[in-house]
Amino acid sequence: MIVGGKKQVVAVLADQNLFRRFPLATTSSSPAWAIHQHTKAKAVHPDVLPATYYNSLRIFTRQKVLPGAQDVAHLDTLVPENEGEIAFSVAGATKLGGTAEARAGSGIKPRHAPNQEITIRIPERLSQTAQNAEIVGALQSVRYTPKNVGLKIESKKRTLLTAMSNKLEKWEDRGWIETPNAETLKALAAALREREAETKFAVVTRSEEGEEADRLARTGAEKQDTDQIDLQIPDHLQLRGAKLSTLSQRTAYRGIKALKEKVHRKATDENVLNTQQAVKSLFKKAPTEKLIWKSIRSKDLSRQVRNFMWKTLHGAHCIGKFWAHIPEMEDRANCQHCGGIETMEHILLECNRPGQAEIWNLAEALWRKRFSTWPTVSFGGIMGAALATFPDANGKDSQSAARLYRIIMTESMYLIWKIRCEVVIQNNGEPKTTTEIHNRWVALINERLEIDRNLTNQMRFGKQHSLPPSLVLETWKGTLLDEDKLPPL
What we know:
Elements: E1 2-3, E2 6-7, E3 11-13, E4 24-29, H1 37-40, E5 42-44, H2 53-56, E6 57-59, E7 86-95, E8 103-110, E9 118-121, H3 130-144, E10 151-155, H4 159-173, H5 182-193, E11 199-204, H6 208-222, E12 242-243, H7 249-259, H8 266-283, H9 289-295, H10 303-314, H11 344-350, H12 356-367, H13 379-383, H14 399-426, H15 434-454, H16 458-465, H17 469-476
Parallel strand pairs: 4-11, 7-10, 10-11
Antiparallel strand pairs: 1-2, 3-6, 4-5, 6-12, 7-8, 8-9
């Protein structure tokens, strides 16, 4: 409903038939009794909810319809209609997980057909996680099986069993708001509801078919071309919106936020892409956009630094081209010292006014007290400093090294900005002396060290907000004055 140019949240009555749960059986087994799974299955047949307004009133019912796709899902069924219960082992795998280059694959191994193997590469528009790939594998298994044939879907993890037996009703009641992999889970639930025969989900930790499904999933993740997955749901199986009677204010607010179209800002997209490329160049992994935004909320960063980085990624500071179209203020677009356009990259890395060069030299000198290699400083590298990874002697990521790096980089960055603002706004362009810059940087780092030291007091700050003394000592070791005189922990 559109009223006065604004979107209004309206409630509608849902079709009561959609509340009926599909026949479902769940099985959890260990290798010791895996051959007896079928006798230990517990059937779940929830009753139809009473047709009352209390259960039927739903909001957020105007949802986007997914586009259709020519799909691997609609291949010929792999099971004759006169078969009894058949089983598929499904698995999911991901390559370069947690990065912008992640690739997920599904593996499906039919138990009734030893020579058949199915590999699927998850489309890029879907979440590239092993969990989502496993859900897709289950969806395809359902579509490969006639509706009147009993079906058992086996996997090593409890993801599918828990999702379809314990969490589905809750997710549907809240309208799938903030539910990971909602698109694929909704399609799986709809496909199961269309079935006439019983469906079982089993957890089988060890089996030949399970190992084969794992191998097929890894193969699927390696495929060059993605497989298109049709996630459209027939209208008679659509359960749109969230149940009003069970909706919390928090969830409702997030549902309203989700109705808004995401606005792409050119400056933001460019800065995020720059950060992804820089982090990949420096640390060999390109972070996702979501991971970049999460990283600038790191508790190792001060509130002022977090706010500054958020505005910087959005290009929201009043510098450079911001002033170019404001009458009588066009000259503010240029650097007072260099004369060129004053971008944030220019301020942090390029301006030859005393400040940035001296501070980065001090940061490098402190870092080299512990490490021989200093990562190249770039604008994207600074914005992605909280995503830095450094291997320790065993080849594992060093938490203390990454923490020291993000503190040095972000505090140095923010000090450069503060000095620039003082010079331009307060001192009418008069630069700071190198001695003052040096002393302020040393005082700043010592202040961060003191904050870390104080945060080790668990009695004062509590377990949740305090820092382990070992982490603080590991972070700053090799950089402290008279470190050899410190008492042991």
